[in-house]
Amino acid sequence: MADTWKALAAEKKNRQKEAIPQQWLIDVPGDEVLDVTGVPEACGLLSELEVEITN
Fold first, then answer.
1. Which has more confidence, 18 or 54?
2. How far is CA 44 from the centre of its chain?
3. 3-class DSSP assignment, residue 42
4. Please, is 53 exposed, middle or buried when counting C-beta atoms within 10 Å of its C-beta (0-12, 13-18, 19+)?
5. pLDDT at position 32, please?
6. pTM higher than 0.90 for the full model?
7. First-to-last CA distance in the chain?
8. Is the N or the C terminus of the chain less surrounded, counting Cβ atoms within 10 Å?
9. With 0-12 CB in 10 A as exposed, 13-18 as middle and 19+ as buried, what is 10?
10. How far apart are alpha carbons 53 and 39 in whole angstroms?
11. Under 8 Å between Cβ of 43 and 24
């Protein structure tokens, strides 16, 4: 039974990952980065208005 739900969960996670367009993905900062508040400005995906709303 455990293998069944694990396989199903892995399949769903993979499908979810494939559904996100590549250009929407950003690099995840390493564990040493403690402050990620600058990511919205730095990622380049958001317009100025979207960054303003996010902040």
1. 18
2. 14
3. helix
4. exposed
5. 94
6. no
7. 45
8. N
9. exposed
10. 14
11. no
Q: Which residues does 30 contact at the CB level (< 8 Å), separation at least 6?
A: none
pLDDT score for 2? 67
Query: At residue 1, does pLDDT exceed 70?
Result: no
pLDDT at 43: 86
pLDDT tens digits for range 8-47? 999 999 999 999 999 888 888 889 999 988 888 888 888 9
Q: How far apart are CA 53 and CA 28, in angstroms?
A: 22
Angle of CA points 28, 31, 34, to nearest 5°: 95
Distance CA 6, CA 32 (A): 30
